[in-house]
Amino acid sequence: MTRAKHIMIEGHHLFINIIGYGEPIIFLHGGPGSEHRFFLPHILPLAKHFQLILYDQRGCGSSDPLPGNNYSIEEEINTLESLRKELQLEKINIFGESWGSMLALSYAASFPERVNKLFLTAAIGINNKGFNMFKKELLKKISIKDKIKLVSTDRKANKGHASTDDLLDILDPYYVFDKNNLLKKSKTIMNHTVNHVMVEDIEKNYDLTSHVEQLANIPILIAQGSHDILSPTIIEELLIKFIPHAQLHPLEDCGHWTVIEKPDEINLLVEQFFQSEVEAIKK
């Protein structure tokens, strides 16, 4: 059963989509600036066992924009905490994808007593070093021809003569292992303003290195594509080194869009990881 609706969080509408019944899992989409539909329909088999709680972050998808475009990591942490309270959940399981993995870690570091488990995929790292490395590694992969197209399209976008979709049409093929998987991605909306403002905040303020002790008692599983822009080996340096109890599961023949390229494997990992929480509660 699907229950999609707007709820009021701190004076602004937040769009949520709740699917299925059972132990809740809150999904944090990437971008920043994307929306919850990125996960659909790929994670729907999980609704047989869990309640899937998806939502569009501030200014994303069908959620209200913030006045003054005051988007920040701190704002998103507070939004997630307000959502937890609104849904009357004492503790939450979180699935964070790409930028959503950074948000998941940030929330857990701020409210460790409110988190059961973290499942991260297409992870970036524990601080802005990973975010900056992601951009550098992506640029290495882009062909000269596409770099030229990217610069030209970006200039047009700044003048209002091209859209974010035009930019993504150039970049998206570099996010997958197999370009045929581009056709499996649901049509989503990217908010360029949210992306721009959040990227600046991430570059300036994302650093959890002095807060890793807050994560020490939270089970964490990371599923990383073998051919992600940040490979499993790089994630060992950017994340596992700081959170040694976290488990790293490489996904073979997979790029950054793990949910789209390897949905069956992701769903099985999620089911096994969070099902153990359900079984522990029953005992």
Q: Tell me the CATH superfamily.
A: Alpha/Beta hydrolase fold, catalytic domain
Main beta sheet strand tally, sense and closure: 8 strands, mixed
By CATH reckoning, the class would read Alpha Beta
Number of strands: 8
CATH architecture: 3-Layer(aba) Sandwich
Radius of gyration: 18 Å
Helical percent range? 25-40%
Termini Cα gap: 27 Å
Strand order of the largest sheet: 1-2-4-3-5-6-7-8
Query: What would the average pLDDT be, to the nearest integer?
Result: 94
Please mark out the parts with pLDDT under 50 across 5 or more consecutive residues, or reply none.
none
CATH topology: Rossmann fold
Protein name: Proline iminopeptidase
Keywords: Hydrolase
Domain AB hydrolase-1: 24-263
Family: Belongs to the peptidase S33 family.
Key features?
283 residues; alpha/beta; Rossmann fold
In short:
This protein has helices spanning about 75-85, 100-110, 130-140, 145-160, 165-170, 190-205, 230-240, 260, 265-280; strands at about 1-10, 10-20, 25-30, 50-55, 90-95, 115-120, 220-225, 245-250. The chain is an alpha/beta fold. The chain has a single domain (about 1-280), classed as 3-Layer(aba) Sandwich (Rossmann fold), CATH 3.40.50.1820.
